[in-house]
Amino acid sequence: MDQSEFGQFVAALWERQGWQTQVKNDDGRTFVAVQRPNGGEEGLLWAIPDGEVGGQQVQQFAKLCQQYEVSESAIVTAGTVSDHAEKVSQGSGVELLDGEGVARILKQKEWTDLAEEYGDGGANAEAETGGATSDGDGSPLDQLRAVGDRLGSKLSAALGGTSVPAKPAVAVVLVVALLAAGVLSGVSIPFLGGGGGPVSAESVSPANSTTTLSVAWNARVTDTIDPDESDGKAYPAPRGKQFVLVKMRINNTGDAKTPLKKSAFKLRTANRTYGHQPLAEHEGFIDFPISPNQRYVGWLAFAVPEGSSGTLIYDQNATGTPVTVEFTRDSSIDVNVSQR
Fold it and tell me: Phi, psi (5° rounding) for residue 111?
Protein backbone atom coordinates (compact mmCIF):
# COMPACT_ATOMS: atom_id res chain seq x y z
CA MET A 1 0.00 0.00 0.00
CA ASP A 2 1.11 3.55 -0.60
CA GLN A 3 0.73 6.28 2.03
CA SER A 4 -2.82 7.25 1.06
CA GLU A 5 -4.09 3.67 0.71
CA PHE A 6 -2.69 2.66 4.09
CA GLY A 7 -4.36 5.62 5.77
CA GLN A 8 -7.69 4.61 4.27
CA PHE A 9 -7.09 1.00 5.34
CA VAL A 10 -6.44 2.09 8.95
CA ALA A 11 -9.57 4.26 8.86
CA ALA A 12 -11.62 1.30 7.64
CA LEU A 13 -10.18 -0.89 10.41
CA TRP A 14 -11.36 1.55 13.07
CA GLU A 15 -14.74 1.97 11.39
CA ARG A 16 -15.27 -1.75 11.89
CA GLN A 17 -14.92 -1.01 15.62
CA GLY A 18 -17.64 1.62 15.54
CA TRP A 19 -15.56 4.80 15.22
CA GLN A 20 -16.22 7.63 12.77
CA THR A 21 -13.04 8.45 10.87
CA GLN A 22 -11.44 11.12 8.74
CA VAL A 23 -8.13 10.72 6.92
CA LYS A 24 -5.87 13.77 7.04
CA ASN A 25 -2.63 14.18 5.07
CA ASP A 26 0.07 16.54 6.32
CA ASP A 27 3.45 17.06 4.66
CA GLY A 28 3.89 13.45 3.60
CA ARG A 29 2.36 12.01 6.76
CA THR A 30 -1.07 10.46 7.12
CA PHE A 31 -3.22 10.82 10.23
CA VAL A 32 -6.66 9.44 10.97
CA ALA A 33 -8.91 11.46 13.28
CA VAL A 34 -11.43 9.19 14.98
CA GLN A 35 -14.43 9.89 17.17
CA ARG A 36 -17.15 7.91 18.84
CA PRO A 37 -20.65 8.64 17.45
CA ASN A 38 -22.72 11.44 18.99
CA GLY A 39 -19.72 13.51 19.98
CA GLY A 40 -18.03 10.82 22.08
CA GLU A 41 -14.36 10.40 22.89
CA GLU A 42 -11.81 11.41 20.27
CA GLY A 43 -8.61 9.78 19.10
CA LEU A 44 -5.78 10.34 16.66
CA LEU A 45 -3.92 7.66 14.72
CA TRP A 46 -0.64 8.07 12.86
CA ALA A 47 -0.71 5.66 9.91
CA ILE A 48 2.80 4.66 8.75
CA PRO A 49 2.77 2.18 5.84
CA ASP A 50 6.33 0.84 6.12
CA GLY A 51 9.69 1.07 7.81
CA GLU A 52 10.49 0.96 11.52
CA VAL A 53 8.79 3.22 14.05
CA GLY A 54 11.37 4.73 16.40
CA GLY A 55 11.27 6.14 19.90
CA GLN A 56 11.64 9.74 18.71
CA GLN A 57 8.49 9.43 16.63
CA VAL A 58 6.56 8.12 19.65
CA GLN A 59 7.81 11.01 21.79
CA GLN A 60 6.82 13.63 19.22
CA PHE A 61 3.42 12.09 18.61
CA ALA A 62 2.74 11.82 22.36
CA LYS A 63 3.61 15.52 22.74
CA LEU A 64 1.18 16.40 19.96
CA CYS A 65 -1.65 14.38 21.48
CA GLN A 66 -1.07 15.87 24.91
CA GLN A 67 -1.09 19.35 23.39
CA TYR A 68 -4.52 18.79 21.88
CA GLU A 69 -5.82 16.73 24.82
CA VAL A 70 -6.56 13.70 22.64
CA SER A 71 -8.09 10.99 24.82
CA GLU A 72 -6.80 8.07 22.72
CA SER A 73 -3.80 7.78 20.42
CA ALA A 74 -1.96 5.09 18.49
CA ILE A 75 0.70 4.64 15.84
CA VAL A 76 -0.34 1.98 13.34
CA THR A 77 2.19 0.60 10.88
CA ALA A 78 2.48 -2.26 8.42
CA GLY A 79 6.18 -2.24 9.26
CA THR A 80 7.93 -2.84 12.56
CA VAL A 81 8.39 -1.12 15.92
CA SER A 82 11.83 -0.67 17.52
CA ASP A 83 12.58 -1.75 21.07
CA HIS A 84 13.15 1.89 21.95
CA ALA A 85 9.73 2.83 20.61
CA GLU A 86 8.13 0.09 22.71
CA LYS A 87 9.89 1.40 25.80
CA VAL A 88 8.98 5.04 25.13
CA SER A 89 5.34 4.13 24.52
CA GLN A 90 4.96 2.68 28.01
CA GLY A 91 3.21 5.31 30.06
CA SER A 92 3.10 7.81 27.17
CA GLY A 93 -0.52 7.08 26.29
CA VAL A 94 0.48 6.19 22.71
CA GLU A 95 -0.30 2.61 21.77
CA LEU A 96 1.62 0.79 19.05
CA LEU A 97 0.32 -1.66 16.48
CA ASP A 98 2.79 -3.19 14.03
CA GLY A 99 2.35 -5.24 10.86
CA GLU A 100 2.13 -8.56 12.69
CA GLY A 101 -0.42 -7.08 15.07
CA VAL A 102 -2.54 -5.89 12.15
CA ALA A 103 -2.38 -9.38 10.68
CA ARG A 104 -3.54 -10.96 13.93
CA ILE A 105 -6.48 -8.59 14.17
CA LEU A 106 -7.59 -9.37 10.64
CA LYS A 107 -7.41 -13.07 11.41
CA GLN A 108 -9.22 -12.89 14.76
CA LYS A 109 -11.99 -10.64 13.48
CA GLU A 110 -12.20 -12.36 10.09
CA TRP A 111 -11.64 -9.03 8.37
CA THR A 112 -9.18 -10.19 5.72
CA ASP A 113 -11.38 -8.56 3.11
CA LEU A 114 -9.93 -5.22 4.21
CA ALA A 115 -6.40 -6.30 3.35
CA GLU A 116 -7.55 -7.62 0.00
CA GLU A 117 -9.53 -4.46 -0.82
CA TYR A 118 -6.88 -1.90 0.04
CA GLY A 119 -3.92 -4.07 -0.83
CA ASP A 120 -5.25 -4.21 -4.38
CA GLY A 121 -5.52 -0.44 -4.46
CA GLY A 122 -9.30 -0.68 -4.35
CA ALA A 123 -9.83 2.28 -2.04
CA ASN A 124 -12.90 4.24 -3.01
CA ALA A 125 -14.16 7.73 -2.40
CA GLU A 126 -16.28 6.60 0.52
CA ALA A 127 -13.21 5.47 2.42
CA GLU A 128 -11.70 8.94 2.14
CA THR A 129 -14.54 10.34 4.25
CA GLY A 130 -14.71 7.44 6.66
CA GLY A 131 -17.88 5.99 5.17
CA ALA A 132 -20.01 8.83 6.56
CA THR A 133 -22.33 11.07 4.60
CA SER A 134 -22.90 14.77 5.08
CA ASP A 135 -26.43 16.14 5.20
CA GLY A 136 -25.63 19.64 6.36
CA ASP A 137 -24.41 21.26 9.56
CA GLY A 138 -24.36 18.99 12.58
CA SER A 139 -24.16 15.70 10.66
CA PRO A 140 -21.70 13.05 11.91
CA LEU A 141 -19.25 13.87 9.14
CA ASP A 142 -19.46 17.61 9.74
CA GLN A 143 -18.79 17.04 13.44
CA LEU A 144 -15.90 14.76 12.62
CA ARG A 145 -14.39 17.28 10.21
CA ALA A 146 -14.39 19.81 13.02
CA VAL A 147 -12.56 17.30 15.22
CA GLY A 148 -10.10 16.59 12.42
CA ASP A 149 -9.43 20.27 11.87
CA ARG A 150 -8.81 20.83 15.57
CA LEU A 151 -6.53 17.82 15.98
CA GLY A 152 -4.80 18.35 12.67
CA SER A 153 -3.84 22.02 13.02
CA LYS A 154 -0.13 22.71 13.49
CA LEU A 155 0.77 19.07 12.81
CA SER A 156 3.82 20.11 10.81
CA ALA A 157 5.12 22.29 13.65
CA ALA A 158 4.48 19.68 16.33
CA LEU A 159 6.08 16.86 14.32
CA GLY A 160 8.68 18.88 12.47
CA GLY A 161 11.75 16.96 11.39
CA THR A 162 10.16 13.54 11.80
CA SER A 163 10.94 11.00 9.13
CA VAL A 164 10.29 7.32 8.69
CA PRO A 165 13.50 5.32 8.20
CA ALA A 166 13.66 3.82 4.73
CA LYS A 167 13.26 0.06 5.12
CA PRO A 168 11.50 -2.51 2.94
CA ALA A 169 7.73 -2.31 3.24
CA VAL A 170 5.78 -5.15 4.81
CA ALA A 171 3.35 -5.78 1.97
CA VAL A 172 -0.25 -6.67 2.65
CA VAL A 173 0.21 -9.79 0.54
CA LEU A 174 2.62 -10.95 3.29
CA VAL A 175 -0.05 -10.22 5.90
CA VAL A 176 -2.52 -12.39 4.02
CA ALA A 177 0.07 -15.14 3.67
CA LEU A 178 0.70 -15.13 7.42
CA LEU A 179 -3.01 -15.38 8.03
CA ALA A 180 -3.34 -18.32 5.67
CA ALA A 181 -0.47 -20.08 7.40
CA GLY A 182 -2.26 -19.73 10.73
CA VAL A 183 0.93 -18.77 12.56
CA LEU A 184 -0.37 -15.63 14.27
CA SER A 185 -2.47 -15.44 17.41
CA GLY A 186 -4.16 -13.06 19.86
CA VAL A 187 -3.65 -9.32 19.84
CA SER A 188 -5.77 -6.39 20.95
CA ILE A 189 -6.76 -3.44 18.81
CA PRO A 190 -5.72 -0.19 20.48
CA PHE A 191 -8.65 1.33 22.39
CA LEU A 192 -11.12 -1.27 21.10
CA GLY A 193 -14.41 -0.21 22.60
CA GLY A 194 -12.80 3.02 23.76
CA GLY A 195 -10.68 3.67 26.80
CA GLY A 196 -7.12 2.76 25.73
CA GLY A 197 -7.11 -1.02 25.67
CA PRO A 198 -9.08 -4.25 26.01
CA VAL A 199 -10.05 -3.49 29.62
CA SER A 200 -13.14 -1.90 31.17
CA ALA A 201 -14.30 -1.51 34.79
CA GLU A 202 -17.52 -2.18 36.65
CA SER A 203 -18.53 0.09 39.55
CA VAL A 204 -20.47 -1.41 42.46
CA SER A 205 -22.79 0.14 45.05
CA PRO A 206 -24.13 -2.33 47.64
CA ALA A 207 -27.16 -1.12 49.58
CA ASN A 208 -25.42 -1.54 52.95
CA SER A 209 -22.07 0.00 52.00
CA THR A 210 -20.25 1.84 54.77
CA THR A 211 -18.01 4.06 52.68
CA THR A 212 -16.99 4.92 49.09
CA LEU A 213 -13.74 4.36 47.21
CA SER A 214 -13.17 6.55 44.17
CA VAL A 215 -10.79 4.66 41.87
CA ALA A 216 -9.20 6.43 38.91
CA TRP A 217 -7.41 3.85 36.79
CA ASN A 218 -5.67 3.11 33.52
CA ALA A 219 -4.35 -0.11 32.02
CA ARG A 220 -2.15 -1.52 29.31
CA VAL A 221 -1.23 -4.95 27.97
CA THR A 222 2.40 -6.05 28.03
CA ASP A 223 4.46 -9.20 27.63
CA THR A 224 7.04 -8.23 30.27
CA ILE A 225 7.09 -6.24 33.52
CA ASP A 226 10.38 -4.68 34.61
CA PRO A 227 9.97 -2.93 38.00
CA ASP A 228 13.66 -2.01 38.30
CA GLU A 229 15.69 -1.72 35.11
CA SER A 230 18.93 -1.50 37.08
CA ASP A 231 18.70 -4.92 38.74
CA GLY A 232 18.64 -7.01 35.57
CA LYS A 233 15.42 -8.74 36.58
CA ALA A 234 12.25 -8.75 34.53
CA TYR A 235 9.06 -10.80 34.67
CA PRO A 236 7.87 -12.32 31.38
CA ALA A 237 4.25 -13.35 31.08
CA PRO A 238 3.60 -17.10 31.35
CA ARG A 239 3.48 -19.00 28.06
CA GLY A 240 0.28 -18.30 26.17
CA LYS A 241 -0.62 -15.39 28.45
CA GLN A 242 -0.19 -11.64 28.60
CA PHE A 243 0.01 -9.22 31.50
CA VAL A 244 -2.68 -6.61 32.01
CA LEU A 245 -1.00 -3.93 34.11
CA VAL A 246 -3.49 -1.74 35.99
CA LYS A 247 -2.46 1.51 37.73
CA MET A 248 -4.95 2.92 40.27
CA ARG A 249 -5.29 6.15 42.22
CA ILE A 250 -7.63 5.39 45.10
CA ASN A 251 -9.35 7.97 47.28
CA ASN A 252 -11.58 7.18 50.26
CA THR A 253 -14.35 9.72 49.74
CA GLY A 254 -16.58 8.29 52.47
CA ASP A 255 -16.84 8.91 56.18
CA ALA A 256 -15.44 5.64 57.53
CA LYS A 257 -12.14 3.79 57.50
CA THR A 258 -12.22 0.61 55.40
CA PRO A 259 -9.80 -2.22 54.62
CA LEU A 260 -7.97 -1.79 51.32
CA LYS A 261 -6.80 -5.12 49.93
CA LYS A 262 -5.27 -6.01 46.59
CA SER A 263 -7.17 -9.30 46.63
CA ALA A 264 -10.42 -7.36 46.24
CA PHE A 265 -9.47 -6.11 42.77
CA LYS A 266 -9.88 -8.75 40.08
CA LEU A 267 -10.02 -9.00 36.31
CA ARG A 268 -12.98 -10.83 34.80
CA THR A 269 -12.69 -12.23 31.27
CA ALA A 270 -15.31 -14.04 29.23
CA ASN A 271 -14.28 -17.39 30.73
CA ARG A 272 -13.15 -16.75 34.31
CA THR A 273 -12.12 -14.21 36.96
CA TYR A 274 -8.42 -13.68 37.75
CA GLY A 275 -6.77 -12.44 40.90
CA HIS A 276 -3.58 -10.39 40.72
CA GLN A 277 -0.31 -12.04 39.67
CA PRO A 278 2.28 -11.79 42.49
CA LEU A 279 5.81 -10.82 41.40
CA ALA A 280 8.69 -12.05 43.53
CA GLU A 281 10.50 -9.27 45.39
CA HIS A 282 8.22 -6.55 44.05
CA GLU A 283 4.96 -5.27 45.49
CA GLY A 284 2.84 -2.77 43.64
CA PHE A 285 0.00 -2.70 46.15
CA ILE A 286 0.05 -2.76 49.95
CA ASP A 287 -2.90 -3.84 52.08
CA PHE A 288 -3.87 -1.36 54.80
CA PRO A 289 -6.95 0.36 56.31
CA ILE A 290 -7.60 3.51 54.28
CA SER A 291 -9.00 6.47 56.19
CA PRO A 292 -11.51 9.07 54.95
CA ASN A 293 -9.94 11.52 52.46
CA GLN A 294 -6.79 9.39 52.32
CA ARG A 295 -5.30 8.73 48.88
CA TYR A 296 -3.24 5.80 47.66
CA VAL A 297 -1.53 4.93 44.37
CA GLY A 298 -0.81 1.32 43.49
CA TRP A 299 -0.57 -1.11 40.60
CA LEU A 300 -1.57 -4.71 40.01
CA ALA A 301 -0.69 -7.17 37.26
CA PHE A 302 -3.07 -9.83 35.96
CA ALA A 303 -1.92 -12.75 33.79
CA VAL A 304 -4.68 -13.65 31.32
CA PRO A 305 -4.79 -15.62 28.05
CA GLU A 306 -3.42 -13.75 25.03
CA GLY A 307 -6.02 -11.72 23.19
CA SER A 308 -8.41 -11.60 26.15
CA SER A 309 -10.63 -8.65 26.95
CA GLY A 310 -11.42 -8.07 30.60
CA THR A 311 -13.40 -6.07 33.14
CA LEU A 312 -11.84 -4.71 36.32
CA ILE A 313 -14.12 -5.56 39.25
CA TYR A 314 -14.18 -5.22 43.05
CA ASP A 315 -14.94 -8.33 45.11
CA GLN A 316 -16.87 -7.36 48.24
CA ASN A 317 -16.15 -10.75 49.82
CA ALA A 318 -12.40 -10.07 49.96
CA THR A 319 -12.71 -7.66 52.90
CA GLY A 320 -16.07 -8.53 54.42
CA THR A 321 -16.89 -4.82 54.47
CA PRO A 322 -19.51 -3.54 51.98
CA VAL A 323 -17.98 -0.67 50.00
CA THR A 324 -19.24 1.45 47.13
CA VAL A 325 -16.52 1.51 44.47
CA GLU A 326 -16.66 4.08 41.69
CA PHE A 327 -14.28 3.29 38.83
CA THR A 328 -13.28 6.07 36.42
CA ARG A 329 -10.83 5.51 33.60
CA ASP A 330 -8.20 8.25 33.40
CA SER A 331 -6.08 7.97 30.27
CA SER A 332 -3.61 10.54 31.67
CA ILE A 333 -2.39 8.07 34.31
CA ASP A 334 1.03 6.69 33.35
CA VAL A 335 0.71 2.91 33.52
CA ASN A 336 4.07 2.15 35.07
CA VAL A 337 5.30 0.27 38.10
CA SER A 338 6.15 3.21 40.33
CA GLN A 339 4.04 4.45 43.23
CA ARG A 340 3.85 8.00 41.85
Answer: -110, 30
Per-residue pLDDT averaged across 90-107, rounded? 82
Q: What's the whole-number mean pLDDT along residues 272-279? A: 89
Of 297, 215, 287, 288, the C-alpha closest to 254 is 215
* Mean pLDDT calculated for residue range 189-208: 62
Strand order in the sheet with 295-305: 295-305, 241-252, 211-222, 323-329
Cα distance between residue 249 and residue 265, in whole Å: 13
Whether 176 and 63 map to the same domain: the answer is: yes
189 belongs to a structural domain: no
Give yes or no: residues 153 and 260 share one domain: no
Count of beta carbons in the 10 Å neighbourhood of residue 100: 18
| Residue range 100-139, pLDDT digits in tens | 888 888 877 778 888 778 765 443 434 333 443 333 444 5
- Residue 195 in contact with residue 331, Cβ under 8 Å? yes
Q: Which of 181, 209, 235 is the last residue of a domain?
A: 181
